[in-house]
Amino acid sequence: MGSKNDDLGQIDGVGGATSVTSKVAVVSPSARPDVDVDYTFVQVAVGHETIDLSGNCGNMCSGVGPFAIQEGLVVPPPGAHSLDVRILNTNTNRCIIETVELDGYGQVREAGSHFIPGVKSPGSEIKVAFLDPAGSVTGKLFPSGRRIDQIIVDGEELEIPSFTVDATLIDAANPFVVVDARTLPPSVRDTAPGTSISLRVAEAIRQRGAVLMGLASDLEDASRTRGTPKIAYVSPPDHKSPDPNALAIKVLAYSMGKPHPTLQLTGGVCLASATVLEGTYTESTINDR
């Protein structure tokens, strides 16, 4: 991927110098009779010769089904126009079913008319269904035992006043620290997400969330695993609307210490789960629209 010699630019590789492109999916036939292929996700650090195997990646996962068909690991029946590929993510020991469109001749149909937000050109649709995603890493949907936690951050090391944020610590497809953006300190709310102070505050919250979720024994331990848990700030839309199709929430996610350009697929699973479970911050935000 290009992280040899701690190269931040990943010049000698295909990593792209961003955490969202510096990823590897390892795919093989599965020994389980109810699974087609095993898939292991590897997050390759940018600028460091390290890898992280602690969680799953939904965006990488969406390419596993087409890859398995193209490589002959899964053979579609003659004349099929779609196929369900059963995938075991070895990082979380959870199963995923991907529905992949075919051309009727055993090949993946790449062209199509399906759009997803943020992508200008259409393509064939890939449906990703996470089976039993709760407790994917921690074994519990709410690892702290609460649906809203108060995370206290000592601001001395950040050179800002100490503060407390409200957050839902949830593990569905991946562990996430979902923060009420309105409780962030003013120095962060009014600052671009990629500035030094914004990045340091996000990491400080994430590390404390990791300890509360039982994913790390202390803050130093949490700092060594940047990929899990992930963190996202959630806030209500700027303007309320009675339209049920109107914007419901705003989300800013981080990936490996940097702002994510969109939203992790597993983050979408966590947010969707939280919105239908009473007592979470996200659920109350949706119902207060």
From TrEMBL:
Keywords of the record: Isomerase
Domain of life: Eukaryota
UniProt cross-references to SUPFAM superfamilies, sorted A to Z: Diaminopimelate epimerase-like
GO molecular function: isomerase activity
Keyword Ion transport: no
Keyword Iron: no
Positions of transmembrane segments: none
Membership in a protein family: Belongs to the PrpF family.
Name listed for the protein in its UniProt record: Methylitaconate delta2-delta3-isomerase
Species of origin: Stachybotrys chlorohalonatus (strain IBT 40285)
